[in-house]
Design brief:
CATH topology: Endonuclease, Chain A
Mean pLDDT: 80
Shape: globular
Low-confidence stretches: 18-29, 216-220
Number of domains: 1
Largest sheet: 8 strands, mixed
Number of helices: 8
Radius of gyration: 17 Å
């Protein structure tokens, strides 16, 4: 079932990316062309960031206005940065967070992701990636003690993309196999587009197959 959903999603996205990426090889993005493509295809792609890190100012703005937030991340470092700070310290906003399960077996997806990143970043290994996920899990568990809107769960599924979705839209990153997420392509999706619905569907599938978060001490 997981492979089928990922296959459908990847096929839908590939059609849009073939048309879009040629317009972003140099110079400023031609947003009017992206908007036209979005309307013609129904994909809902409204912005494209050649690297995920360039999306953070827009992400921070959208999070401040969101009525609800859903996050599926490969490591979760963004959850400790300034973009998310208003969510943790302000009025409770329903936030569902999915992070990889660091207690899963060495043959699991998190371990495979560490092996891929280690090809280009020799400082990355399974132990370090697991430690970073545990640290971010601990951080969110402490946040949840003060903010009842935060709900954290752990997944053991392909660690190949990041979804940050709100009622205002979604930021979708497909991780380069040997690249950190911050260097990977990121799309902004309109709530009226097919890819937004597909991204929410993938999140809901992962949520339904996730497990309750454990503290780092309990997970070791």
């Amino acid at each position: 079932m997981t492979a089928f959903l990922l296959g459908v999603f990847s096929s839908l996205l590939a059609t849009a990316l073939v048309c879009v990426t040629g317009w972003f090889r140099s110079g400023r993005p031609r947003w009017w062309l992206v908007g036209l493509l979005s309307r013609l295809t129904g994909t809902g792609i409204t912005r494209l960031y050649r690297q995920q890190r360039f999306a953070e100012p827009d992400l921070a703005r959208d999070l401040k206005r969101a009525r609800w937030v859903k996050v599926l991340a490969g490591r979760g470092n963004v959850l400790t940065r300034d973009a998310f700070a208003p969510l943790w310290s302000g009025a409770p906003t329903p936030v569902r967070v999915l992070l990889p399960d660091p207690a899963s077996s060495r043959e699991a997806w998190l371990s495979r992701r560490a092996q891929d990143l280690g090809r280009t970043d020799p400082g990355i290994g399974p132990e370090l990636l697991e430690a970073q996920v545990r640290a971010n899990t601990d951080y969110l568990e402490r946040v949840g003690q003060h903010n009842p809107g935060v709900n954290l769960r752990l997944f053991d599924l392909p660690n190949t993309f990041r979804v940050i979705a709100t009622d205002r839209g979604a930021y979708l990153t497909f991780y380069g196999r040997h690249e950190h997420g911050r260097h990977s392509l990121c799309l902004h999706l309109s709530p009226s587009g097919a890819l937004y619905e597909a991204a929410l569907g993938l999140f809901d599938f992962a949520w339904a197959n996730s497990s309750p978060a454990r503290s780092s001490e309990g997970g070791r």
